[in-house]
Amino acid sequence: MMMHVMKMAARIWTALAFSVRVVQSQQHPLDSLTADEYEAVVDILTADGRVTDATRFHQVSLKEPPKSFVKSFRGGDPIPRAAVAYIRSSPGRTCRAEVDIASRRVVSFDEPDMAEGQPMILFEEFYGAGEIVKVDERMVEGLEKRGLTPDDVYCVPFSAGAYGDPDEVGNRLLKIGCFVRPAHDRNVTGNWFARPIQGLLAVFDLNTDTTLDVVDTGVVTVPTDPWGYTSAEIEERYGKRPLAVARGGRLLAASSPAVPADVGYAIDGSVVSWDFWRFHYRVDKRPGVILSEIEVNDKGTWRDVAYEAHLSEVFVPYMDPDVCQYYRTYMDSGEYGFGITMTSLTPGVDCPKSATFLDSTFHDDFGMPLTLQGTMCVFERSTGDPAWRHYEWFAQTPDSSIPADGRPATELVFRYASTVGNYDYLVDYIFMQDGTIKVAVGSTGYFL
Q: Which residues are catalytic (predicted)?
C-alpha cells in the first residue's frame, strides 16, 4: 500500500508541474542540466547496474568544471558535461554517483557517511506518508476525540530535525501533523493551513514505512474560521475594497506599467546583459537560481565582481518547546529544495506584465526531466529616484531659470519564487547603475 501511495503522489506532482518537453543545448559550461542530460544520467546509471525500480533520485546537480576552465572558456570550445547524483535504492543506503555525460560512463559510485544527515525529501515521501499516517489506529483514535474522521483531515509531513532522540538512529524520520480540510473541493483554492489539529502528532519512519509513535497531549479546540485568502473570500469577510484614489480624484493604476516598446537588457542563452552588467544563470534543485560570472564592463574591459552567488540556506526555527512543536526548525532549502519548489510567476502580480519569463528544468523522484514554466522573470524598473542630479545656482539669472539636470535611476531585477508549504519566498537579485547588487529575500503566503 505504501509504495502504491508513494507512486500516486509522485505522478500527481509531475502533473502539477505543467511538464513540457523543451529542446535545449549548452552554450556555456555552467548551463543548467537539460532534459536530455537528466535522462542520460538515469540511462548511464541503469546501464551500469546502479538503478532498480526502487531507486529514487534525491538530487541531481551539475558537476561544475574547474573555475580556471570556465574563466578561459570561449564560445565554440568543447564543453565537459558531468553530473553528481544522490540516489537511494534501499532503505538507509544513500549513494553518491558522479556521471560523465559526454563519455556516458560512471566516474565514481560510493556510499558517503550519512550519519549526520539525510538526503532531500522526495515528493512521494512528502505526499505519501501523510495518507498512511492518518489511518493508523492511534491517529484515528486521536481524531475521534476531536470529533473528526480521517476523511475530514489531511496530514502534512514535516522534517523532524536532529535532537539526539533514540528514534533518530538508523531511521529517516518525519513528524506529521494534521489539519482540517477546507470546505472547498480539492481542485479549488482555500486556506489548507487555517485549522490545525494541535496536540496530535505522528512520528513516521520512511525507511520502514511505519508509524513509530502517535503523540496525543490532549484535545485543543480546533479553529472554526476557515480564513480563506481568495479575492471572493476576502470580499465576503470585509466587503469589496475601494479602488485607491489619489488626491484630486485621479484613479491610481492597479496594473503593472505599460509594456515598453523595447527593453534595455538582452538574454543570450543563459547570459543576461544590461547596462554595464553581465551574468550567467542556471537552476538547481536545492538552492534554486545560481548566478555566476557576474561582471561589469569598465570602459570595454570586463571586470569580475563575483564568480558565483546563490541562496545558501533558509533556517526557520519556530522556537516552541511544546512536544508537538519543538522539532520545527526547518532547513527549507536543504530539506525541501528552493529549486524544485519554484512556482510559475503570474504576470501583473509576481512580476510586471512587461517582464521576460524563463522556464526551469529539474528532475522528478525517478530522475526524469521536469520542466516548470515561467518560474523566473527579468525586468527593468524605475526606482522613482534620481541616479544623479544637480541644480546649478550660478547658472540662474533674473531673466531665466535653469532646471536641475539629472538622470532617472533604473535597475534590473532577476526574480524567482519558491513555495515551501505555507510560505512563499521571493528572491530578487537587483542590479543597479551605481555598481551595487542588492539581494532581497522575503516571505509571504501565511503563517502557522
A: 332, 423
